[in-house]
Design goal:
- This protein is mainly alpha-helical and 255 residues long.
- Helices cover 58% and strands 5% of the residues.
- It contains seven helices and four strands, in the order ααβαβααααββ.
- The strands form two sheets. A two-stranded antiparallel ribbon has the order 1-2. It has a two-stranded antiparallel sheet with strand order 3-4.
- Helix 1 packs antiparallel against helix 2.
- The N and C termini lie far apart (61 Å).
């Protein structure tokens, strides 16, 4: 991400990062982290895995945005496409954008070639998520399928926007770095806190064991958990109800 208050950042020019934009995103990510952690206490410990995952995602994002707001982890990179717009044109002897490698750890000379490789890999991921993954979710129940579809469509839609953002910002040097900061900030809020909220809402009544996530609490006996998981597995595949003695009885399906 290239950030400055006057367009592209040039080493000899005053660096004025859009602190308010970055502070806002940092605050949203941090608050979301604490909200997700707080919501985890409303669930049994064995049902908190998605709360922990979403909290970790937003916390990492908060640290990244705090780092960018502090003007750390950045380097000046010569632009590939020189523009006439004064917001991104720079000066004849200084045409750099300040790139924060806290967001992009790897930076190569042939950046558009790697961009194409990345987009091709993303198309395969999108296909797997929307087709193969959705079929697995459908086999686990209507509620799981609905949650997977909502979160999957939301994620893939946003992931299609990230390459566009990169192409018109760092890659093509079309928009100013202030606009770039806003673009990425909004995308990251949608892809992390909002996605996390959708995920946790969709899973509010779903037992992780239905997804194959058999998590034992510290006070539970391992043998008891194993028996419970076995009974759940048998009920799922027989359509029956598990009795107290561990056997499975047929479910009356008559109306």
């Amino acid at each position: 991400m290239a950030l400055t208050g006057i367009g592209s950042a040039f080493p000899n020019a005053p660096f004025k990062p859009p602190a308010n934009d970055l502070k806002t995103v940092t605050a949203v990510m941090t608050v979301s982290t604490f909200v997700f952690i707080g919501l985890s206490f409303t669930k049994p410990r064995s049902h908190r895995v998605f709360h922990y995952i979403t909290a970790a995602i937003t916390m990492v994002a908060a640290i990244a945005y705090f780092t960018m707001g502090a003007d750390l982890g950045q380097a000046g990179i010569p632009v590939e496409f020189v523009r006439t717009d004064p917001k991104v044109s720079g000066t004849p002897d200084n045409q750099n954008r300040e790139i924060f490698y806290v967001r992009y750890i790897d930076w190569y000379k042939f950046l558009w070639g790697y961009f194409v490789f990345g987009c091709a890999a993303f198309l395969w991921v999108a296909w797997t998520v929307t087709m193969t993954g959705r079929q697995y979710a459908t086999s686990l129940g209507a509620d799981i399928s609905r949650t997977y579809t909502i979160c999957g469509v939301w994620t893939i839609f946003l992931w299609f926007l990230y390459p566009i953002a990169w192409g018109i910002c760092e890659g093509g040097n079309v928009v100013s770095s202030d606009s770039e900061a806003v673009f990425y900030g909004v995308l990251d809020i949608m892809a992390k806190p909002v996605f996390g909220a959708l995920l946790l809402w969709g899973h509010r009544n779903i037992d992780p064991a239905r997804l194959g996530l058999h998590i034992r609490d510290y006070h539970e006996d391992p043998d008891h958990v194993a028996d419970r998981n076995l009974a759940h597995h048998e009920e799922k595949h027989t359509g029956g109800e598990t009795a107290t003695n561990g056997t499975t009885t047929a479910t009356d399906t008559t109306v």
